[in-house]
Design a protein that fits this description.
By secondary structure, the protein is α+β, with helices and mostly antiparallel strands. It has one domain: Outer membrane efflux proteins (OEP) (Up-down Bundle), CATH 1.20.1600. The chain contains 11 helices and 6 strands. The strands form 2 sheets. The protein has a 4-stranded antiparallel sheet. Strands 1-4 form a two-stranded parallel ribbon. α2 crosses α4, α4 packs antiparallel against α10 and α8 packs antiparallel against α9. The protein is elongated. It starts with a helix and ends with a helix. It is found in: Cell outer membrane. Keywords: Lipoprotein, Membrane, Palmitate, Signal, Transmembrane, Transmembrane beta strand. GO terms for molecular function: efflux transmembrane transporter activity. Belongs to the outer membrane factor (OMF) (TC 1.B.17) family. InterPro entries: MdtP/NodT-like, OMP_efflux.
Length: about 500
């Protein structure tokens, strides 16, 4: 009895020893702080959970909600997440015993030639029945942690899909936000061009009246006509740009093919000029070290590395023996009426140890392949971290420069507007020619179009910075806790 207890204790100790390396996060040389920028304090981050709502545009909020609910990339990632949950459930179940129920019924005829011979008795063929019902318990003692490593890899795979879904959602929201701003800018540029066209038509009509009255020459009239036609030619291009961006936005929010094909003008509510969209002035503060916890793509890459590390242990354990225990309890009889009686009881206990003896390098190759895949995952993780920090660096720079550019172009528009007014007055007074007026008008149109682009770029730079910093600042419950509670 003492020997049996000692053997059982040794088995349990071995079962707790998992081969293969334990995961350790790669060390990265991170900066201590971001470059100087206008950032919010920690206590003010709560307002930035749904960061796109800080632009205070109800139409944008509705588009984001629809995109999150209907976008096909989100649905695809949700299905992958369910697959990962199922894999974790399977890996957890592999660590538990299996209980099988089997029932058999057989009727067999034994030939007379195989029956025992007795003096004076002629051997006869026999026909016998056999009925049995039994339960079979099977359990693999995880001597070297193969099953534990498989579950560890499944947990990491689930985490990877959770963070991948977050990354897809963040990218989708950022795409919706920036495409929406692009569309509003295109609509504003179309409106500017249409207003300019009206002004050009009025100028041409006025010059025609003056030409017919003999107050100006044909050259001035043709210059006004050429400028009118040039502006008119811009309208279809602006309309095409608006239509294209409406289609892009329709795909992002999950419109059906029928909706896209019948889309004449997207229902975006009342037209919102870019200047009317609220532009956040400050951004939540984050430390560079926090970026590794906030960026879902970085977390997904790390989870992939965790799974690859666990896979090394699985490959190493595959080269070692497996210990399986079996137990059978049942009943067997030649007549069904005798089943489940004491005399028909049957049971059995057994164990087996099996492992590779000569596999001619298969096991070693499996370990080497797992180690190579882990090295690839480590390189991908490090590349993802570097790319994330570079995106933040670029986004911070764009955030600052876009604001400076928008401010400069606003001043330019004000100056060009005054120049255009003065040019028209001096032309009417006869001090300058009509060509100077046209130049001032062209400069004003170009400056107004550039201002629409600059405000769009400033809005997009803010959205890009939020995306680069990891999106909203809510801290959800760790997915790993849910993963560990998965039913087997």
């Amino acid at each position: 009895m003492r020997k049996a207890i000692t053997a059982l204790a040794a088995v349990l100790i071995l079962a707790g020893c998992a081969v293969g390396p334990d995961y350790q996060a790669p060390e990265m040389d991170l900066p201590e702080a971001w470059p100087e920028s206008s950032l919010l304090a920690d206590g003010e981050r709560a307002a930035w959970v749904d960061w796109w709502k800080r632009f205070d545009d109800p139409t944008l909020n509705q588009l984001v909600e629809r995109a999150v609910a209907n976008n096909l990339d989100i649905r695809l990632q949700a299905a992958r997440l369910e697959e990962a949950r199922a894999r974790l459930g399977m890996a957890s179940a592999e660590q538990l015993p299996t209980v099988d129920l089997q029932a058999e019924a057989a009727r067999e005829r034994g030939p007379a030639t195989l029956q025992p011979a007795f003096p004076g008795v002629e051997p006869r063929a026999r026909t016998d029945n056999l009925f049995s019902v039994s339960g079979v318990l099977g359990y693999e003692i995880d001597l070297f942690g193969r099953l534990a490593r498989e579950r560890e890899a499944a947990e990491a795979f689930l985490l990877e899909n959770v963070f991948s879904q977050d990354a897809v959602r963040l990218n989708l929201i950022a795409d919706v936000v920036t495409t929406y701003f692009d569309l509003r800018a295109a609509q504003q540029q179309l409106a500017i061009t249409e207003n300019t066209l009206v002004s050009r038509e009025e100028t041409y009509a006025l010059e025609r009246v003056r030409y017919e009255a003999g107050e100006t020459d044909e050259l001035t009239l043709r210059q006004a006509e050429a400028e009118l036609q040039s502006t008119r030619a811009e309208i279809p291009l602006r309309q095409e740009q608006v239509s294209t961006l409406e289609g892009v936005l329709g795909v992002l929010v999950g419109m059906s093919p029928a909706e896209l094909m019948t889309l004449d003008e997207m229902d975006l509510g009342e037209y919102t000029p870019l200047e009317a969209i609220h532009l956040p002035e400050d951004l939540p503060a984050t430390l560079p070290s926090e970026l590794l916890e906030r960026r879902p793509d970085v977390r997904a890459a790390e989870a992939e590395l965790m799974a690859a590390t666990a896979a090394i242990g699985v490959a190493q354990a595959e080269r070692l023996p497996r210990l399986n225990l079996t137990a059978l309890l049942g009943t067997a009889a030649t007549d069904t009426s005798d089943l489940f009686t004491g005399a028909a009881e049957t049971w059995g206990l057994g164990s087996s140890v099996a492992g590779p003896l000569f596999d001619f390098g298969r096991g070693r190759a499996g370990v080497e392949a797992a180690e190579a895949m882990a090295a690839q995952s480590r390189a991908r993780y490090q590349a993802t971290v570097i790319s994330a920090f570079n995106e933040v660096r670029d986004a911070l720079s764009l955030y600052r420069t876009s604001s400076q550019r928008a401010q400069a172009i606003r001043a330019q528009v004000a100056a060009v507007e005054r120049t255009s007014q003065l040019a028209e007055l001096r032309y009417q007074e006869g001090f300058i020619g009509f060509i100077e007026v046209l130049d001032a008008q062209r400069s004003l149109l170009a400056a107004e179009l550039a201002l629409a682009e600059a405000v769009r770029d400033q809005l997009n730079a803010t959205a890009t910075l939020f995306k680069a910093l990891g999106g909203g600042w809510a801290q959800p419950d760790p997915p790993a806790d849910d993963a560990r509670d998965e039913p087997g």
